[in-house]
Amino acid sequence: KLQQLDLRLMTDSTNEALKGEGFAHNKLVVAEYQSAGRGRRGRKWVSPIASNLYWSLGWKTQLPVQQLGGLSLVVGLSIVSALEKLGVTGVEVKWPNDVRYQGRKLGGILVELSGDMVGGLNVIIGVGLNVHMANGAASSIEQEWINLQELKPNISRQDVLTAVIQELQKSLEQFAEHGFDAFTEQWSRVDECFNKKVAIIQNDDVVNGIGAGVDSNGAFLLQTGKGIKPIYAGEVSLRFR
Ligand code: ATP
Ligand code: BTN
Fold first, then answer.
1. pLDDT score of 1 more than 90
2. What is residue 54's predicted lDDT score, i.e. its pLDDT?
3. Whose CA is nearest to atom 7 of ligand 1?
4. DSSP-derived secondary structure letter, 99
5. C-alpha distances out from residue 29 to 1, 145, 238, Å
6. Is 59 touching ligand 2 by the criterion CB < 6 Å?
7. I want to staple 76 with a disulfide (CB 3.0 to 4.6 A). Which of 93, 105, 132, 172 is the partner?
8. ipTM given for this complex
9. Which domain range does residue 31 map to?
10. Percentage above 70 pLDDT, the chain
């Protein structure tokens, strides 16, 4: 069901390649490496050559923008299911966009909107997954990380990409039809924060609590002394305590 496949040796960022005129529904941009791979809020995504997966998918949707909060979680779920099908178990998602294994970052998801809003929202779904990144390339990553190859030796990037895209396309159909509600049960199986002590950090403001799942818009539910508080992904960071 992919409409267009754009394979590149190098690009600044596969998300950037889908912005503006570059956007098309079900267009997949894959790059061998990125010169300016990005995470949330302009953070750098380390993207060396011939080692990992960097790709972005264009997705046009009629869903209202408030419902898109659940989208990065659905993408995370699709990655976990695809990896399970390839025999890799134990991968979790740290709300809202980190793919992790035993607390080490295996990949990340960057969902963005592109300019043209005629006939629906143009959503860009960007995914980076570490497959066999050389250690030297990763010296600038300031948190614990891991390669898929450590979880399954000789895993093929091609197989991972194919499996994830397949899962994702199924999930996107469901998401478009039923929103995040269709996924809340699955989410609880991969939710790294469930029942854990966490801190939500927004600018200089820190709120402590315990992870209590997510709501039907994909907002994080923080159990605090004063009851359950929904947290929206926008500008917050989540840390374990
Ligand atoms: P937050 O909770 O605020 O989102 P975060 O540290 O996960 O925190 P992101 O913007 O989601 O921030 O991800 C970017 C971060 O991921 C970088 O600052 C870096 O620490 C880490 N990182 C960058 N490249 C890689 C990579 N290839 N593999 C694993 N981690 C990476
Ligand atoms: C994060 O953890 O903050 C998200 C990282 C997302 C990285 C991917 S790699 C492909 C796509 N292009 C980018 O510049 N970023 C995403």
1. no
2. 98
3. 98
4. E
5. 14, 24, 29
6. no
7. 93
8. 0.97
9. 4-190
10. 99
